[in-house]
From TrEMBL:
The Electron transfer flavoprotein alpha/beta-subunit N-terminal domain, residue ranges: 67-259
Higher taxonomy: Eukaryota, Metazoa, Ecdysozoa, Arthropoda, Hexapoda
Function: Heterodimeric electron transfer flavoprotein that accepts electrons from several mitochondrial dehydrogenases, including acyl-CoA dehydrogenases, glutaryl-CoA and sarcosine dehydrogenase. It transfers the electrons to the main mitochondrial respiratory chain via ETF-ubiquinone oxidoreductase. Required for normal mitochondrial fatty acid oxidation and normal amino acid metabolism. ETFB binds an AMP molecule that probably has a purely structural role.
Gene3D superfamilies: HUPs
Family of the protein in this entry: Belongs to the ETF beta-subunit/FixA family.
Protein name as it appears in the record: Electron transfer flavoprotein subunit beta
Subunit structure and binding partners: Heterodimer composed of ETFA and ETFB. Identified in a complex that contains ETFA, ETFB and ETFRF1. Interacts with ACADM. Heterodimer of an alpha and a beta subunit.
Keyword Transport: yes
Length: 296
C-alpha cells in the first residue's frame, strides 16, 4: 500500500500502464514491481494437494491368504480418483490466478512418485514425496498422514490444503478432517463447488438430499467430492514436462512425525459371495419358490 501511494504520487499519470498479467493499472515507475508483487501476493494462495497411490479402481481386489490385508504386488495402481479432482481444482485456481503455486504431496513407498508425476503433468508446480517404506506403509493410518500434511502445510506456507473426500482403498474419510483439526484451520468437506471471495471461500457441500453453502476464511482445508469438477487427462507433452518439475523427498522423521500405529488390524475378509440367481418359468413357480424358501 505504501508503495502504491508512493508510486501514485511520484509518477505522472501519462506514465501509468496496464499490467496484463494481473489486469491492474500500475505506474510505470522503477519501483512499480513492488506494487504488483505486493498486490498479487496478497491475493494469491499457495495450495497443497494430497495425492494417494491406490489400487486402480478397475482392479478386482483380492484378500491375502493370511487375511491381514489385500494383495498389492503386481497389481495396477493409480492416483486416488478423488485426488484427481482435488488436483484439478487446485490447477484451475492457478489458471484463474487465484493460486500462486500448487504443490502435490504423496506419502508412501517409492512408487508414490508415479502419482506425484501425474499431478505434475496435470499442472501442479512441484512435488513432495514423503517416503515411507512399503512394510511400514501398510501400517500407516490417516492420523499419521494428517500430521505429515499439516506440518508440510505450515513449512510450505500453504493457504489452502485440498484432499480427496476419501481414499478408495481404506475408505477412511478421515484425513481432511484430521488435518484441519491438527492445524486448527476451518474445513470445507465434500466440496461440490468452491468460489474465491475477498473474504475467503464460499463452498457448496454435498450433504444428504442436497447442497449446503458455507463461507470460510483462509487458510482452510477442503475435501473434494465427485461432482466438484471433471479432472483433465495428462497430455503426452505435459507428461514429458512433468519429468523436469522439482520433486523433493523427505521422511516422516524429517518432519518430526511419529508413525507408530494406533490401530491394529485384526483381520481382512472378502465380502460375502452373492448366491447365483435362478430363472423360473412363470409367476406360479416364483411364488412356490419364495414360499419354499420361507420368504413369503
Ligand atoms: P482417507 O481419509 O484415507 O479416506 O483419505 C482422504 C484423502 O486424504 C485422500 O483422498 C488424499 O487426498 C489424502 N491422503 C490420504 N492418504 C494419503 C497419502 N498416503 N498420501 C497423500 N495423500 C493422502
Amino acid at each position: 500500500m505504501i508503495s502504491l501511494l508512493f508510486n501514485s504520487v511520484a509518477t505522472p499519470f501519462w506514465k501509468w500502464q496496464r499490467c496484463g498479467k494481473y489486469n491492474l493499472w500500475t505506474p510505470n515507475h522503477p519501483l512499480s514491481f513492488l506494487t504488483i508483487s505486493a498486490v498479487a501476493r496478497k491475493k494469491m494462495a499457495r495450495v497443497l494437494v494430497g495425492v494417494k497411490r491406490v489400487i486402480d479402481y478397475a482392479v478386482k481386489v483380492r484378500v491375502k491368504p493370511e487375511k491381514n490385508g489385500v494383495v498389492t504386488q503386481g497389481v495396477k495402481h493409480s492416483m486416488n480418483p478423488f485426488d484427481e479432482i482435488a488436483v484439478e481444482e487446485a490447477v484451475k485456481m492457478k489458471e484463474k490466478k487465484l493460486a500462486s503455486e500448487v504443490i502435490a504431496v504423496s506419502v508412501g513407498p517409492t512408487q508414490s512418485q508415479e502419482v506425484i508425476r501425474t499431478a505434475l503433468a496435470m499442472g501442479a508446480d512441484r512435488g513432495v514425496h514423503v517416503e515411507v517404506p512399503a512394510a511400514e506403509y501398510d501400517l500407516l493410518q490417516p492420523i499419521h498422514v494428517s500430521k505429515i500434511l499439516a506440518k508440510l502445510a505450515l513449512d510450505e506456507k500453504a493457504d489452502l490444503v485440498i484432499l480427496g473426500k476419501q481414499a478408495i482403498d481404506d475408505d477412511a474419510n478421515q484425513t481432511a478432517q484430521m488435518t484441519a483439526a491438527v492445524l486448527d484451520w476451518p474445513q470445507g468437506t465434500f466440496c461440490n463447488k468452491v468460489e474465491k471471495t475477498d473474504a475467503g471461500l464460499t463452498i457448496a457441500r454435498e450433504i444428504d438430499g442436497g447442497l449446503e453453502t458455507i463461507k470460510t476464511k483462509l487458510p482452510a482445508v477442503l475435501s473434494a467430492d465427485l461432482r466438484l469438477n471433471t479432472p483433465r487427462y495428462a497430455t503426452l507433452p505435459n507428461i514429458m514436462k512433468a519429468k523436469k518439475k522439482p520433486l523433493k523427498k523427505v521422511t516422516p522423521k524429517d518432519l518430526g512425525v511419529d508413525t507408530t500405529p494406533r490401530i491394529e488390524i485384526i483381520s481382512v475378509e472378502d465380502p460375502p459371495v452373492r448366491q447365483a440367481g435362478a430363472v423360473v418359468a412363470d409367476v406360479d413357480a416364483l411364488v412356490a419358490k419364495l414360499k419354499a424358501g420361507g420368504h413369503i
